[in-house]
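Subject: Protein entry, chain in single-letter code together with its fold tokens

Area: Proteins and the way their chains fold up in space.

Attached in line: The record itself begins immediately under this heading.
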Amino acid sequence: MLKVENITKYYGNFLAVDNLSFEVKPGEIFGLLGVNGAGKTTTFRMIVGLLKPTSGNITLDGHEIDYNITDQIGFLTEERSLLTKMTVKEQAIYYGTLKGMNEKEILNKLDKLLKKFKVEEYKDKKIKELSKGNQQKIQFITAIINNPKLLILDEPFSGLDPFNVELFKNEIKEMADNGSIIIFSSHRMEHVELFCKKLVVLKNGKNILSGELKEIKHKYRKKNIKIIGDIDLEKIKQIDGVVSITKNNLEYQVKIEDESIVNKVFNVVKQGKNITKFNVEEPSLNEIFIWTVGETYDE
């Protein structure tokens, strides 16, 4: 288990992370979210041992994270960290050796991963000769080549088309199923919703929202009603508690302040014609994020 206990980090007088705590168990995919500058990268660097907290503790299976423990960690950074003049094979050997693997182990695992990600033909190509998407694949491969017990993924789908996003998603889920602890950060809230059962949202280094995603959605008062049919929009707009109405093709989306407004909207809608849909839905994580943080992610 990864335990982050009351960690605080100052850079001089600047407070980057403020008394942050969370736990991630084996097999869990945990979301760490926040706008740029919220403290995510500093937190990641403290977890992998690149930075020391000003106060607080971080442990993996009860042990402080040092050079012995870092061999069990994989970290895919948001920024590209590949050595572009190396070949894919050389890059894998370099990173694998840093993680305590021998060359035979590295090459066996590399061949399996290159085949899985459909880039076998690039084994002897230099990194700089690859497309951005294929560079991202190689960066991911080097992050997981040591079968990490703890894997940190910061924007793992950057530069990938939908087909390759699926390849990554399948591998991440497989690693979690095999017991890896995974911390996931992404600008794409739909990816976070797909993967993460638990999450923390940071703002100015402080935890402002945390818990199980299902419970967070349930507690968030605003709901969405999806309607298809001929309805009296003006009457619905006049209902106290209706926040907004938008239309996408044939479907109307009515945002309401809380569930108490549902019956009021339904009483108007049932007077309409050709009503084929009236669904009350939980808000998306993106809506909750904007409401909580007060802004959207910077792309």
